Each structure stands twice: as C-alpha cells, then as structure tokens.
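Re: that backbone. Tokens:
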C-alpha cells in the first residue's frame, strides 16, 4: 500500500524521502522482531510518517508481512490508521497500488 499526495494543480507528486531515522525501516518485522516495540509505538511511528508524507506531498509505502501483522496487530489497527489518515486528508492523499506509482516515474537515459 502506498500513499500518494496530490499537488495543488491536481497532479500527483512522487517524491521518495526518508521519514524516520530509527535504525530500521519502519516495518512490522523491524518493529516487532524481538519484541522491541509495543503496538502503540508502531502506530505512533506510522501516524508521524503518514502525516509527514501528506504534509510534504511525498509517498509512503507500508512494508508489512501478513503473518507478522496477524501476530502483533491482530485487529489490523495499523492498516485502519493509514486508511483513516488518508480519508481525513481529503483530496490531498489517496491509496494507490505500486503500478500507479510506477506510471509516474521517469526513467533516466542509460549511459
């Protein structure tokens, strides 16, 4: 799942940026392996990352493994939070698939 923000002129702007510097990618495996993060902290990191993404017209890619989420977030609160934040952002953000993002990526000429 990726969150894409919309520029004032209606075009999607895709800017990849590091959102958090926590030593690991913010993923369910990075957060929960070894029991390092409580669910509440993971949800806070997601909220901060998605809010930053919307504010800066960037892309947020939620990296998650279904088997890990089932064990650590059985109510899928992380996915619900992302959907709620995108819904609350109105036309400033939307949930899209990776194919949609790839269509807007400009390839550099080789050589």
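Recovered sequence:
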């Amino acid at each position: 799942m990726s969150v894409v923000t919309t520029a004032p002129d209606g075009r999607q702007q895709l800017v990849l940026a590091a959102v958090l510097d926590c030593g690991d990618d913010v993923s369910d495996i990075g957060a929960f392996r070894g029991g390092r993060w409580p669910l509440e902290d993971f949800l806070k990191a997601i909220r901060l990352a998605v809010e930053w993404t919307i504010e800066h017209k960037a892309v947020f890619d939620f990296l998650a493994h279904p088997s890990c989420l089932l064990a650590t977030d059985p109510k899928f609160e992380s996915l619900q939070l992302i959907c709620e934040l995108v819904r609350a952002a109105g036309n400033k953000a939307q949930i899209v698939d990776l194919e949609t993002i790839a269509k807007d990526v400009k390839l550099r000429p080789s050589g």
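The first helix runs from residue 28 to 32. The beta strands are 2-6, 12-13, 59-61, 93-96.
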